[in-house]
Amino acid sequence: MEDIIADPPAAETLFDPATAFGNKGPFELEIGCGKGGFILRRALDNPEMRLLGIEWSNKYFKHAADRMARRGADNVRIMRTDARHFVIHHLPVECLSALHIYHPDPWPKKRHHRRRLFQTDFIDAAIRALIPGARWAIQTDHAEYFEWITDLMEQTEGIERTEYDDPKFGIVEASAQTNFEIKYREEGRTIYSLAYRKLK
Ligand SMILES: C[S@@+](CC[C@H](N)C(=O)[O-])C[C@H]1O[C@@H](n2cnc3c(N)ncnc32)[C@H](O)[C@@H]1O
Q1: What is the CATH number of the domain that holds 123?
Q2: Could you tell me the residue range of the domain that residue 46 belongs to?
């Protein structure tokens, strides 16, 4: 279990994937990994990869870390921190092969919109952290937040829209099969998705 948990970097320090995992393998990040359903499957299907899941909720963080340990997913690290702060202040330039964000909290009330993860500074920092050619997949069940995200992403330079479906990145038949997605599909909710690639 201790091997799975990654401590948030100290102030003014960059996260070092080589220290957290060792040197080899594509490095991917999932923000708001929740109970860890997606990251676990990705890790077990791709043992050569290094996968970091960031989760703010202590309950989900513990659940996900415990689940990875029980399933022997030793290519996963779970970190409890604010992903927005982590991406802006602690993620090195051009380190990520893929970024996954599935069902980010929508903060539907207008006065709470500033709490949304997707803001220009966050998007710019995330794109800085992608390797040229790397992929960013996003999925939500919230129509208005989807519009907000799409508008911001479409205004961003240095990326191009790409197919959401891509089994190489864990998306099969337009589905990431996260815990929330499974629940929402059962309830008959519409799922919205989009993906981008960083230009080379
Ligand atoms: C709606 S849940 C989705 C969980 C998972 N991605 C899924 O689809 O099943 C959103 C998750 O993001 C986490 N979260 C929200 N804001 C966060 C932040 N700033 N940093 C890290 N995690 C965050 C929440 O604690 C919650 O577990």
Answers
A1: 3.40.50.150
A2: 23-198
